[in-house]
């Protein structure tokens, strides 16, 4: 087959393919209704306004990576409000979270786990902790039981990683919707690290349905094979704008897409060659199909003020 681009009308019905390897529902990513889900806050200002409080309510476990706890605290003006939004965990080397903020959350029973290792980021430490929380039988119990022990009996350098490494082979995993705030923008090395996390987690912790929300975009990894992305018709017209299919893991081939304004087939894509599908759009009424040879990053521009009505 030779490579082709097809320009579609602004709206079209996309027939679901007879079979596909993966399925994603955009509204479910944003409102998993607490079931097997987590919200992770990284260390940048929470810049999504009141939507934050709605999101908070939609996730089962909430966790702050180190200085992310400052940002949660600073989002509110009064302790009465802060006390209603207590995270389940704060984790990291704890060099960024302010002492008085740490005390505030400590006094209110938040589990605070120190991990001083300088060989992984607080973002990665958070992912390890969430894996242990969801899959390691006895982890939650151990934290409760060891409440008065130094660091809950967890080695304070890299105990979480050790526990994760030792036990993960035996885990019986199920999918976890994991929404991360503040992974993108700000420091460029951290932003790129967040991109590497999308790729590495898809290999080592494939149970995460990992997505990043910024003040402009929802960002996910489209895995190898065919992926059906579903969404509500109204959600599409009101909230979704541009999108990009970004080969950030290296040159690859987009085998085919259906439901984009510019659908492609057998399309080679490469940053080095300046060939990337940016400023594309979803035109499928309620779904879009993307089949890629290797995982690519998909950003979906969202009109945040409208999101309130759908999640
Ligand atoms: N300026 C920034 N821009 C983007 N992301 C950031 C920025 N600062 C922190 N992060 C994210 O928030 C997480 C927690 O950051 P924090 O500043 O508390 O820790 P740190 O010790 O400085 O960072 P690291 O994770 O590298 O140890 C980081 O792991 C990273 O994912
Ligand atoms: C090759 C290499 N580059 C950078 C770091 C530094 N580093 C990576 S993650 C991290 C944690 C920060 O809290 C730090 C300091 C390293 N260890 N190895």
From TrEMBL:
Enzyme class of the recorded protein, top EC level: transferase
InterPro entries: Thi_PPkinase (IPR006282), Thiamin_pyrophosphokinase_euk (IPR016966), Thiamin_PyroPKinase_B1-bd (IPR007373), TPK_B1-bd_sf (IPR036371), TPK_catalytic (IPR007371), TPK_catalytic_sf (IPR036759)
UniProt keyword list: ATP-binding, Kinase, Nucleotide-binding, Transferase
SUPFAM superfamilies assigned to the protein according to its UniProt record, in alphabetical order: Thiamin pyrophosphokinase, catalytic domain (SSF63999), Thiamin pyrophosphokinase, substrate-binding domain (SSF63862)
Classification via SMART domains: TPK_B1_binding
Gene Ontology MF: a single term: thiamine diphosphokinase activity
A Pfam family assignment: TPK_B1_binding
This protein's pathway: Cofactor biosynthesis; thiamine diphosphate biosynthesis; thiamine diphosphate from thiamine: step 1/1
Domain annotation Thiamin pyrophosphokinase thiamin-binding: ranges: 226-296
Catalytic reactions on record: thiamine + ATP = thiamine diphosphate + AMP + H(+)
Source species, domain of life: Eukaryota
EC nos: 2.7.6.2
Coiled coil, from the record: none
Gene Ontology BP terms: thiamine diphosphate biosynthetic process; thiamine metabolic process
Protein family per UniProt: Belongs to the thiamine pyrophosphokinase family.
Protein name: Thiamine pyrophosphokinase
Species, as recorded: Lachancea lanzarotensis
């Amino acid at each position: 087959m030779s490579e082709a681009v097809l320009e579609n009308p602004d709206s079209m019905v996309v027939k679901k393919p007879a079979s596909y390897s993966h399925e994603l529902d955009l509204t479910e990513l944003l409102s998993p209704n607490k079931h097997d889900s987590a919200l992770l806050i990284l260390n940048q200002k929470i810049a999504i306004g009141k939507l934050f409080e709605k999101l908070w309510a939609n996730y089962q476990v909430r966790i702050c990576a180190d200085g992310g706890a400052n940002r949660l605290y600073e989002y509110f003006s009064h302790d009465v409000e802060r006390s209603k939004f207590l995270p389940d965990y704060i984790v990291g080397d704890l060099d960024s979270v302010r002492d008085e903020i740490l005390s505030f959350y400590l006094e209110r029973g938040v589990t605070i786990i120190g991990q001083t290792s300088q060989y992984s980021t607080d973002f990665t430490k958070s992912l390890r902790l969430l894996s242990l929380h969801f899959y390691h039988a006895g982890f939650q119990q151990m934290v409760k039981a060891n409440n008065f022990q130094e660091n809950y009996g967890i080695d304070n350098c890299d105990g979480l990683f050790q526990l994760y490494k030792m036990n993960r082979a035996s885990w019986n995993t199920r999918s976890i919707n994991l929404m991360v705030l503040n992974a993108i923008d700000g420091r460029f090395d951290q932003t790129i690290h967040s991109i590497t996390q999308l790729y590495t987690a898809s290999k080592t912790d494939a149970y995460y349905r990992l997505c990043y929300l910024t003040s402009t975009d929802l960002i996910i990894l489209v895995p190898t094979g065919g992926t059906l992305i579903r969404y509500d018709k109204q959600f599409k017209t009101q909230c979704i704008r541009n999108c990009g299919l970004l080969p950030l893991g290296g040159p690859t081939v987009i085998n085919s897409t259906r439901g984009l304004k510019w659908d492609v087939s057998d399309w080679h894509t490469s940053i080095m060659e300046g060939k990337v599908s940016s400023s594309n759009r979803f035109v499928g009424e309620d779904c879009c199909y993307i089949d890629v040879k290797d995982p690519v990053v998909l950003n979906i521009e969202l009109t945040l003020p409208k999101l309130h009505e759908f999640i």
